[in-house]
Design brief:
heterodimer, A: 238 residues, mainly alpha, 2 domains, globular, disordered C terminus, B: 4 helices, extended, transmembrane helix (chain B)
């Protein structure tokens, strides 16, 4: 495993730099956290539960999607499947920077991805490509985003509890609009319309004929399979 | 199989979600140090990531009222035009609110 690539290290100074570089973006994350707090309350979670979910899970899209399952009972299998499917992109993100993290001791390596999410990964991956050896962007950026996400949720819970009839103000559609914005924003490849159409049709069929909540798993798998039909685009050697 | 939404049940659900999410965060690093993810697997994961969002949104569009549907349309339009999620989401919320207060 010894390759002539530049090494990598993790230290406090680099982590602090990472926090500082992520600070501007974190301000926006506070607003998203606020929206999540309001949405969570409107789905019947307590304020404590909403803040705990943000602190423990720290993955916006899957948290919003999980709210859809909340009721008197939480169906376990759909919850696991949704969380895994939405966050499965982390697998690719982690794989992409693995050669970099491989220089760290195993304990640091697996600790440094605890707070990996889209924006701090993107900036860290750019650092890696430019030959930087400090992994602080991944860890520090993650800390900044985590603080903002939890603080935002806290604010949302504090404000949101005063709002009665959230649907009067359109707050019940936050989830759907957030997920749709994430969907469109992360993608500029028109070819994705094929798997997405397959996912929508499969989800509709599952809603009509299968037990409640099965539509998410069925739709995700149908979309993934449809994705295999797409032409492989340029075989990017990573 | 499901958990009751008592505090203990909810806590269990949150811990499970957190573990599954950490599994995805560490899994790529773990797998890659043993075998590379091939292009077919990558395409499947890429397509699945968006598809699960589509599958979650679909019932809202189908079963929701016109306020919800127009909110999705507004979000889509603003997102395509500006590529900025915050204005897009605000446009959606505002659309639903205006439609229902009308």
């Amino acid at each position: 495993m010894t390759r002539p690539t530049p090494g990598a290290q993790l230290d406090l100074a680099g982590t602090l730099v990472g926090i500082r570089r992520m600070a501007p973006l974190s301000l926006f994350v506070i607003v998203f956290g606020l929206a999540f707090g309001v949405a969570a309350l409107s789905r019947g979670l307590s304020g404590l539960e909403a803040v705990l979910m943000s602190a423990l899970v720290f993955a916006g899209a899957s948290q919003f999607a999980a709210l859809e399952l909340w009721g008197p009972q939480i169906p376990l299998l759909p919850l696991i499947a949704i969380t895994f499917a939405i966050n499965a992109r982390h697998l690719l993100m982690g794989a992409a920077i693995q050669p970099w993290l491989a220089h760290l001791p195993a304990r640091q390596r697996y600790a440094s991805v605890v707070l990996m999410s889209d924006s701090n990964w993107a900036m860290a991956a750019a650092d890696y490509r430019s030959g930087a050896t400090n992994v602080g962007m991944l860890v520090g950026g993650g800390i900044a985003l985590w603080l903002a996400w939890v603080l935002g949720t806290l604010l949302g819970v504090a404000f949101g509890s005063g709002i009665e009839q959230p649907e009067r103000f359109g707050l019940d559609v936050i989830m759907g609009c957030f997920l749709l914005a994430m969907l469109v924003g992360g993608q500029r490849d028109l070819g994705m319309l094929l798997p997405w159409a397959a996912a929508a049709l499969a989800a509709l069929a599952a809603m009509a004929w299968l037990p409640p909540h099965a539509h998410v798993i069925v739709g995700a798998l149908a979309g993934g399979l449809a994705g295999l039909l797409l032409p492989s685009r340029g075989e990017t050697p990573s | 199989m499901s958990l009751p939404t008592t505090l203990a049940g909810t806590l269990a659900a949150l811990v499970i979600m957190a573990l599954v999410t950490y599994l995805t965060r560490s899994g790529g690093v773990f797998i890659m140090s043993r075998l590379p993810i091939g292009p077919r697997v990558e395409r499947f994961i890429n397509a699945m990531a968006g598809s699960v969002l589509v599958a979650v949104i679909t019932p809202m569009a189908v079963q929701g009222d016109w306020g919800a549907r127009l909110a999705l349309v507004a979000t889509l339009v603003v997102m395509l035009a500006t590529r900025r999620p915050l204005p897009a989401i605000l446009a959606g919320i505002l659309t639903a609110a205006l439609w229902r207060l009308w």
